[in-house]
Amino acid sequence: MSTALLIEQILNGLQFGVMLFLMAAGLTLIFGVMGLINLAHGSLYMIGAFACAAVAAATGSFWLGLVASLAAAAAAGALVELVVIRRLYDRDHLDQVLATFALILIFSEGTRWLFGSFPLYLDIPSALSGAVQLPGGGRYPLYRLTIIGVGIAVAVGLYLLISKTRLGMRIRAGESDREMIAALGVDIRTLYTVVFALGAALAGLAGALVGALQSVQVGMGEPVLILAFVVIVIGGIGSIKGALVGAILVGLVDTLGRFLLPKLFAAFMGPAQGATAGAAIASMLIYIVMALILAFRPKGLFAANA
Amino acid sequence: MKKILAASILALSMATSGMAYADPLKIGMITTLSGGGAGLGVDARDGFMLALKQSGVKDIEVVTEDDAQKPELAVQIADKMIQSDKVDLLTGIIWSNLAMAVVPNAVAQGKFYLSVNAGPSALAGAKCDKNYFNVAYQNDNFHEAMGNYANTAGYKKVFILAPNYPAGTDSLNGFKRFYKGELAGEVYTKLGQTDYAAEIAQIRDSGADSVFFFLPGGMGIAFMKQYAQSGVETPVMGPGFSFDQDVLGAIGDAAVGVKNSASWSKDLDNAANKKFVEGFQAEYKRLPSIYAAQAYDTANLIISASAKASVKDADAFRAALKEAKFDSVRGKFKFNSNNHPIQDIYVREVVKEGDVLTNKIVATSFTDHEDAYAKDCKM
To answer: Which sequence ranges are marked TM in the entry (chain A) (predicted)?
Structure first.
């Protein structure tokens, strides 16, 4: 095992983590501000990917597709908030889970109805294709480096938005005391719609960026959604900082586990059995990490309302 | 109220008895029409229906239901089809785990099951059944063909990769059964994994001279795109599932030139295949996949058997199925002792015809290939 390979795998873990952060940030924001569990967040990710693929296929430009993915996911998020979610804030979490689960089914079948049952084609833009030379002799795809860059930019942007702007101040106020901020004359309904649309747009952006790497198909959002929930549970529900740290942690643990554990087990058990056993343990690893963190910090690493 | 009810029951029973002419055959089709795997089920259903439409037979009725790729749902649908729809024959399941949940139970109740795709090893060997016919393949077959091809192509150091579930282990075992060189690496990935950067880095590092992978559906699309983007030049190969008509459009040009194995290809030169490919394109405005071809063959096999014997006479119908006297799109077709096909398996190459990606046959890996489990089947 060379250093170049190790560096490459760490970058892979970072890229995966940053992608999870885009999903988890929206999820944790919505939960923190509105106290809502949104299972349909994965559908917004799917909508972003489909919008990007459809617009990129029609216009030939990935960048227009990316803009379309942000717009489509934000619009879908705002619409869903206005029509469905708004009625759920005062209900308990079980009602929210049921209603947003229904939304998953509606979005999935609606997407199939519009786009058909077969996966869509979406490739990375030619400007970002190819690989760059890494120190130590390895090579790394430029597109994945770009995703890491986008993720860091979004993290910085969110930090500035929440700590420096009026909107951010209201979001923080909404997190700590919903009734009071409404009593002070802030239009809480519009604020909720804006936060929901913002979270949706981040999910749509993640969907479009990842859609170019993976396959754009119905149901692509749900596996990511599960991981995003793991991230916000580890990071502390409602905390953007927690989402960032949790996402990077999950990304690194998952990638390095998949890479190192089979090698480790192979040393004891022989290559074939070691590969199977290592792969099996590696797929559980992030849940083991989650369980350990919850055992010592039941509210997650950075609990928002601790 | 009672009168209306009685009258409607009478009317219903008359309606059903009115349909009972010349022993109609009722088929229950359970397949995946929603979720990520829907493309495969839609193709199978469309291929099946095309055969019925082309034949013009009137006394075969098909009930179709969506299993959403969930074993428990497939079991419920099968029960319902057997108990209340009174079907004579079941077919349509794409996935091996669903087939394992449905098939043993259905055949134990005296129903026929004809597989359009799934071919788990258990049902080919010790648990084979006289009423279970697999018209597609035994799961290992395409992988065995690729292992055999790797020898011919002169590969000595292959990196192999599959998801960590039964069909994945079957796949790599099938490949290793015929491949004679050494392995540069053997990796099992998580089922449903969509990011393969970690595995691709290992491939780059391993010094392999080629890569064999089995990643059905969206997993394969993701792997191929990321592989092409990574700049690794090592040639890849795999079973036909990862390079069939349903996914090629989504992979794009990255797939061009890749060798893959299948028992069917759209350019197979025989009259039945021409009629199938042209008919499918005219009816559905797209090219058929292997799943459509296998389902089309299944429907034609059923039509041929029901012309010879009534399904109510199970022994005669079974014998007629076993004869397999129908025009297969694969050119030739016969059943082995375990009711699984003996067939040729080809190596195909992904090519671009105009703007459309598709496959063409470049070699024959096996002639009259049998599966490895037939000897365990005591029928």
So the answer is: 16-37, 44-64, 70-89, 101-122, 142-162, 190-213, 225-253, 274-296
pLDDT tens by residue, B237-296: 999 998 999 889 888 888 999 999 999 999 999 999 999 999 999 999 999 999 999 999
* Chain B contact probe: residue of A45, A128, A213, A215 with most B CBs at under 10 A: A215
Q: Chain A residue with minimal CA distance to B249?
A: A121
User: d(Cα B200, Cα A141) in Å, to the nearest integer?
Assistant: 11
Instruction: Return d(Cα B188, Cα B201) in angstroms, integer.
Output: 15
Pairing of strands B60-66, B89-91: unpaired
Angle between the N-to-C axes of helices A3-34 and A142-164, in degrees from 0 to 180, rounded to the nearest 10: 30
Pairwise CB contact (< 8 Å): B38 & A112: yes
How many CB atoms sit inside 10 A of residue A303's CB? 15
CATH class of the domain at B141-262+345-376? alpha beta
Closest approach of chain A CAs to the CA of B219, in angstroms?
A: 8
Give the per-residue pLDDT at B9: 53
Establish if B160 touches chain A: CB-CB under 8 angstroms. no
Joined together, the tokens standing for residue B66 give 């969506």
Is residue B268 within 8 angstroms of chain A, CB to CB?
Answer: no
User: In 3D, which of B294, B268, B293, B261 has the Cα closest to residue B140?
Assistant: B261
Contact residues on chain B for A214, CB-CB shorter than 8 A: 194-195, 218, 221-222, 225-226
Q: Write out pLDDT tens, residues A208-258.
A: 999 988 889 888 888 889 999 999 999 988 888 899 999 999 999 999 998
Q: Could you report the per-residue pLDDT of B348-362, keeping only the tens digit for each?
A: 999 999 889 999 999
Fold of B22-137+269-335: Rossmann fold (3.40.50)
Residue holding tokens 């940030």? Answer: A25
Tell me if chain A has a CB within 8 Å of the CB of B150. Answer: no
Q: How confident is residue B34, by pLDDT bands cut at 50, 70 and 90?
A: confident
Residue A63 has pLDDT above 70, yes or no: yes
Q: Do A215 and B33 touch (CB under 8 A)?
A: no
Q: What is the pLDDT of residue B6?
A: 55
8-state DSSP, B58: S
Of all residues in chain A, the one with the smallest CA distance to B168 is A276
* For residue B20, pLDDT beyond 50: no
Contact indicator for A237, A34 with CB cutoff of 8 Å = no
Provide the percentage of residues in chain B whose pLDDT is more than 70: 94
Domain ranges of chain A: 10-218
Interface residue B224 vs chain A (CB under 8 A): no
pLDDT interval class at B8 (50, 70, 90): low
Extents of the domains making up chain B: 22-137+269-335, 141-262+345-376
Token pair listed for A55: 């617009």
Q: How far A284 CA lies from chain B's nearest CA (Å)?
A: 10
**Residue A46's closest chain B neighbor by CA?**
B36
At B127, the amino acid letter reads K
Best mutation target among B73, B169, B188, B233 (most A Cβ atoms within 10 Å) is B188
Q: Do domains B22-137+269-335 and B141-262+345-376 have the same CATH topology?
A: yes
Cβ separation of B164 and A143 shorter than 8 Å? no
C-alpha distance from A277 to closest chain B C-alpha (Å): 9
